[in-house]
Amino acid sequence: MRADLLEGILAFTKVAEKRSFTAAALELGVTPAAISWTIKQLEGRVGAPLLTRTTRSVGLTEAGTLLLDHAQAGVAQIAAGYDAAQALGARPAGLLRLNLPTVAQPVLEPILPGFASTYPDIELELTIDDRFVDIVAEGYDAGIRIGETIAQDMVAVRLTHPSAMTVVGSPAYFTKRGKPQRPEELAEHACINFRLASGGIYRWAFKEQFDAGGKVREFEIAVKGPLIVNGSGPSLSAAVSGVGLAYNVADNVEPLVRQGLLEPCVEDFMPIMPGFFIYFPSQARTLPKLRAFLDFYARW
What we know:
By secondary structure, the protein is an alpha+beta fold. The chain has helices spanning 9-18, 21-28, 32-46, 62-88, 105-108, 112-118, 171-177, 232-240, 250-258, 288-299, and strands at residues 51-53, 58-60, 94-100, 122-128, 142-146, 155-158, 163-169, 192-194, 204-209, 216-221, 227-229, 246-249, 263-265, 272-273, 276-280.
């Protein structure tokens, strides 16, 4: 397909419609001379005259009639597509694709019913993915990640405040196995592991501050247990059932703790997670569907 295939087609269809170079030029906002030059270039590429010209009228040659029969429908479809795209840019509608890690699922789940009813013309697609994704290359409108992992060339909007991580287990589990006091004691406990998208097993992170103004030691522990999952929900469900201890964001676990289904342990050794952010390239901020999502979450 030639790169110049569509050049001059609009000018040609307008001249054919108006039967006048002057009227076509007026509607397209250019000079008659520019229209004449464009048509000559188009005729050169076609290899045949398209219009007959006299001092008083403009007509179509046989080649011009054939081209017009095909071109008019194409121009109309392009115009309709342009109008549809322009309309989509003016109202919250269309497919909104978000990429988020497993641990961020509880951040969005509570708002989904209200968002769907408020914006029925937006189709929200959530992809759960623990990889570090290039959202532009993979066709996402935005991503959700922990703040410190977001590329600097992205616009980032905070969704949650900083929150501690936590290790939790069921009351029944702690009654049977006891409560660990230090992270090192987890080696004697059944822990629910989390498999990353890369295939590796997530190592539980901890910190220890030796005194009020002293050095903080950050370290990770590879825990062992009877179960490996790849989602936050199954991990917490298993912990509630007494299978073992789960590692998660404290805010995600708080409702289960409040209900008495889970209890935290080793609380003095838990690091602070900087919070979740939604991020996107700067030009995406103008998309009404994304603006609608940001505004709705901010109001929620």
